[in-house]
Amino acid sequence: MSLILKMTCPDQPGVVADLSNRLNQNGCNILESSQFFQPEPGTKQEDGIGKFFIRMNLQPSGQTDRAALDATLDEFAEAFKAEISLDDTTRVIPTILMVSKFDHCLIDILYRVQTGKLPIEIKAVVSNHANSRADVERLGIPFYLWPVNKENKAEQEAKLDELIERTGAELVVLARYMQILSDQLSSKHFGKIINIHHSFLPAFKGAMPYNRAWERGVKHIGATAHYVTPDLDEGPIIEQDAERISHAETPADLVRRGQDVEARVLARALKLHAEGRVFIHGNRTVIFQQ
Predict the structure, then answer these.
(1) 154 near 181, Cβ under 8 Å?
(2) In a shared domain, residues 36 and 145
(3) Function of this protein (predicted)?
(4) 196 pairs with which residues across the strands?
């Protein structure tokens, strides 16, 4: 068993030395360490004013006492004004998936979870359409059909909030869920809701974006996975990708290729999040790739 340690704090002398010493005293071997310093806007790297981020893969030994390790990390956090977490690498993230009619991202996630390629546990699937019910329920996953309209939007969001609480979900994935979440819900669960959308936004908002992109003669299509905030489609970006297309491709070709990009970008974003590789810093992210 190994552990993942994530820490961020104001940059200051002695952070790494103190943390490493505490880990050594508790019998933890550092297998992997990634770190990054982000200067505050308007300052230079050499000024040393900003945030420090570190992610470590630790191997405990027979002399490691988890309670003692947690206690010394709490002391470290207080001394350095740090935010710190420690998780078992085998832990899977309890997750709720949300989807509308287009199920390509949902099906891709289900496959990756079933084959052990994505460290999340799907507690439930919520949809405003019944299209995916059979694919979900045959895997023994609860499926909730909650149609949304102007009159019942608040009621349905309250049910979603209760489901998050009841299942202990730590992540909500909008796998092409075509409803806008309220500012209240987005703020309450900031950093725990991930969305996927085509990278044409904001140029091609609304219905049939691939058709309108084809009409404009675009030369690249892509997708963006980001954390949801009250600012629509402007949350911290986790992952992106794009593909070059040609004039010979039809709108249907763009849709097909776009869906492929969306599925793989979302899967990569979920893996990065679940493995504790993402730090949110304002409207940016610091990501330690594998």
Answers:
(1) no
(2) no
(3) Catalyzes the hydrolysis of 10-formyltetrahydrofolate (formyl-FH4) to formate and tetrahydrofolate (FH4).
(4) 225
Split at pLDDT 50, 70, 90, the class of 84 is very high
In the prediction, which pLDDT does 127 show? 98
Q: Is the pLDDT of residue 202 over 60?
A: no
Domain range holding 228? 93-287
- Do residues 116 and 164 share a domain? yes
Tokens of 80: 């350095």
Catalytic residue among 135, 233, 253, 260: 233
Does residue 174 sit in helix, strand or coil?
strand
Q: Are residues 100 and 82 in the same domain?
A: no
| Residues in Cβ contact with 172 at an 8 Å cutoff, skipping those fewer than 6 apart | 95, 96, 97, 98, 160, 164, 189, 192, 193, 194
- Please state whether the predicted TM-score (pTM) of the whole model is above 0.90: yes
168: which 2 tokens? 């202990």
- The verdict on whether 65 is a catalytic residue reads no
Q: How many domains does one find in the chain?
A: 2
